[in-house]
# Entry
Amino acid sequence: MTAPHHHGTTHQYDDAPVDPNAHLSPTEYWEKRYGDTERVWSGRVNATMAAVVGEFTPGSVIDLGCGEGGDVLWLAEHGWQAHGLDISSTAVGRARAEADARGLEGATFTATDLSAWQPEPESVDLVTASFFQSNVALDRATILRAAASAVRPGGRLVVISHAQGPAGSSHRGPNMVTAREDAAELALPSDQWTVETADERSRPSTGHDGQSSELVDAVLVMLRR
# Structure
């Protein structure tokens, strides 16, 4: 009932093989995912998230499903006090080690099941969630709504999601959403929140086989009044 992420999401398209570990509990699934290899993700920030957040004045931020910490490390390097949350203690351990190696005191991490997490209300300037989609149980909308309560007035919620897979695959996998669908599912009260951005953006990507392709991300930015 939580919380992969971004460098953590398994983006499984309709023509991809069935995930053999999908029957595991969320904690078991992600621990196995990270434990089976030395590094799962590139360690680089998600380019779409960087482009969006790079326009904001740095402050405090929580990153949901931070995985091995690529986004959190980038945020800290750009002046944010950044705290990453992920269900996998293995991933969080790697993220902490990388933050230490880079001397980034502004990057901190906690291993936690986000389905049971309750943030401090109005405590941060930004909440980010990159590719917070999963093949195992994830009460995504409930977690994002809870996370939104941590945003203080004038702050933002930024959700980057898979909207379309690479050319040649079935275009809309079961977890894929548009930004407008995301906004509708979250249903944050309109007297407290304004939709600043809700669109789809393409970006180049290189698959595990080295083939270049283009992916489409759904970008939702909401401003708390």
Notes: The first helix runs from residue 26 to 35. Residues 181 and 198 are 9 Å apart (CA to CA). The mean pLDDT is 83. Strands lie at 60-64, 81-86, 107-111, 124-130, 151-164, 193-206, 212-224.
